[in-house]
Amino acid sequence: MNSSELARLIKTGILGVDVTEEDVCADIAKAREYPFSAYAVDLSYLELAKKLLQGTRMLLTAAISYPLGGMTLATKLSQIRFALRVRAEEINATLNLGAIKSGDYEAVLAELRAMVDVAGGAIDVIVIPQFEVLTHSEKLRTCETLLDAGVRAIKTDGHGGLCQQEDILLVRRTFGRDISIEASGGIRTTQQALALLDAGADFIHTSTAYSVLADIANP
Amino acid sequence: MTGEEASQTNLLRSIDHAELRPSATYADIRRVCLEARHFGIGAVIVHPVHCERAASYLRGSDVRLVAAVGFPSGAFTIEGKLFEAREAIAQGASEIDYVTNVGALCSGNRAWVLREMEALREATRNHVLKATLEACVLTDAQKRLGCRLAVDAGIDFVVTSTGFGAAGATVEDVRLMRDALGAQVRVSAAGDIRTLRDAWELIRAGASRLRTSSGVCIAQEWGGELREEGKLEQQ
User: Fold this and answer.
1) Domain count, chain B
2) CA angle A189-A193-A198, nearest 5°?
């Protein structure tokens, strides 16, 4: 794999409390020179990013209830409607982790169904189960639930988690190709990225895309 | 009531007992609500997804319910925060603690920050409104600007930190904010408050509220366990 091929499997972006307009402009200007797959921003920069990404192959990703997932379903849905208005191409929505940890999969299913419904096929729904805080059985149950709701893609971790190769293997082994897996959380090196792709990840999500590309040959 | 008991009551009443861990279960939410009732802690703060549940556990008590809005990045739209705040109030929150758009503050976009403060003030007319800054990523000038805008917008409290950043409240930040806010707006300290000593230092520096997940430790450290035991289980 060369750097251009790896870049096509990378989804990047800039997220966080102290990100400035200038940071978004500079980061997207740099990202435009690479064939990354998608670019994620927090909602207050969504409209700005939409303009800046014009003419690139990068999809615009809207971060919904990111990264804690502690917003109500109604708030998450209103955020998805906003993302639709801005014409973002995909969402990364953090699930109701409190419901998962409480074993309330009915609430998880209802949330997922409502999100799929509002997305209406006009925007790709990628959910964040935050594997780092889930047990083995919670991971499996959450994946079953999202498949039930018609969601087909996960981003393994949000803020702070460290992506584990075993999680990728677990999902791939259990659900085959039914779930698209975006590995995310602390991925900073080429070796990490290649190992996760090897384990079955479809995409690498990283805010440090250039360090991930550092140790791979140019085409 | 002795002087010491009176100041202990005041200290505990000034605490926002925080359960903001993303993995908090329904049982955790119940526990913090019962703890606040048991120890005489002033308020409980939870994410909006838990407001309805927390309100049910606080019903009939004088513990206030605070909703954490726009956490932890504050990087949401103004309309989005308004939606979240209104819904939280409808579900039983008596106070809103929202993260200001810190990125806009860092970008020098004071118009956005002020418009957001004014919009939330309008939407929470009859409720206490707290604007959280993230002091650890701001310059002193940006902290002062945030405080000035809060005064202009009539915010009730400015909070030092989200608790999700690299660092929490410092005595220096509380002093700076106290100084910048004047008489109308109070300071709430948050993040890294773990002991009675931390609490006192921040209060001495000018904080009127403390948002911390260590409320029970602080209460116990000061002899909160003197209250009759077993009361928590009975509630």
Assistant:
1) 1
2) 145
